[in-house]
Amino acid sequence: xxxxxxxxxxxxxxxxxxxxxxxxxxxxxxxxxxxxxxxxxxxxxxxxxxxxxxxxxxxxxxxxxxxxxxxxxxxxxxxxxxxxxxxxxxxxxxxxxxxxxxxxxxxxxxxxxxxxxxxxxxxxxxxxxxxxxxxxx
Length: 137
Fold this sequence. Notes:
By secondary structure, the chain is an alpha+beta fold. The chain is built from 4 helices and 7 strands. The chain has helices at residues 9-23, 28-31, 79-93, 108-113, and strands spanning 2-6, 40-46, 49-59, 62-70, 98-104, 117-125, 128-136.
């Protein structure tokens, strides 16, 4: 899978709408926010089709990955790991010493396989249980 930083926010939002709003029932007002204008965005491509996205931020050496999603037809193909490796690599290249994210609880084992460690209590985000996770680079 090809992963790249992109300025194509419309395609990223289309993927996020499909996964978060339509599949998971996240309210649009919570999914699409003003942070999209401040973030860098990544797209993952399989056979010329955008199937995964994530957004990243870097503040004081700490990277944050968010809005990670993979279309249903690409799940189980390595697309999720590829988009995450792309995000981690981009943040590392920009000087991040660690990367944080907020994981839906069911996805914690996925992020653990990438080296992330869960910490802190479970909390609701858009009505979905989450926990914070961190990866030291």
